[in-house]
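agent> Task received from the user: take the single chain below, predict its 3D structure, and emit structure tokens. No templates, no multimer pairing.
agent> Plan: (1) validate residues, (2) run structure prediction, (3) serialize to tokens, (4) report one or two observations.
agent> Step 1 OK, no nonstandard residues flagged.
tool_call: predict_structure(input=
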Amino acid sequence: MKKVFLLLCITFSLSNFHSIYGQSVNDGFHQHTGFYLSLSAGPVFGTIEANEISPVPFRLNFSGGTGGQFDIKVGGAIRENLILHATIISNALIGPKVTSNGQSITLPDNMNINETMLLGGGVTYYLMPHNIFLSGSVGMGYFTMQYKENSDLNGSTDKGVSMQIKVGKEWWISKKWGLGVALTYGKTNVNNRPSSGYAEKLNSNRFGIVLNATLN
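)
tool_result: status=success, residues=216
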């Protein structure tokens, strides 16, 4: 009789254990499946170079200043932990230092150099159970200049190839939400021809440290 009672107790305990912890398998608890939304923001570092090819060759280097990065990824898992998504990325460099031929000036804080990946897609993979992720995106990007004091100086370049690599780790804060940190590297290359007889190349090398929030 004691053995039967003990067996019933063990069976009941295992049943409760499965009902509490088994949801991680059956209910999508702490799993990377289904709809995917990732948001991140943080400081960005690095340079943007503008090389005029014609009519007069020269090089400008934009660096320093206050930089910020924001990206959003929306998609879904094609299988557990493997996600395909659309990507939009925006970087801003406020009041950068401009260097040319060894001479430098610092632009005012109301002048921004922006870098945007407007149309992009990518893939993200989670290494479980550590919740470490690797992400890569590629798409079309361009640069813009904004000057609040004189809108006549505002402008944008042609579009070129833009990419981002991101590596990070998240911690679950609810059934579906994860919060973490990530390191990013991004690059945009543009061949710009704003007018006849004028040509320049712009490229960037940008590193970021971002706070990452994911719904999945």
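agent> Step 4: summary for the user.
Residues 2-21 form the longest helix (20 residues).
agent> Done.
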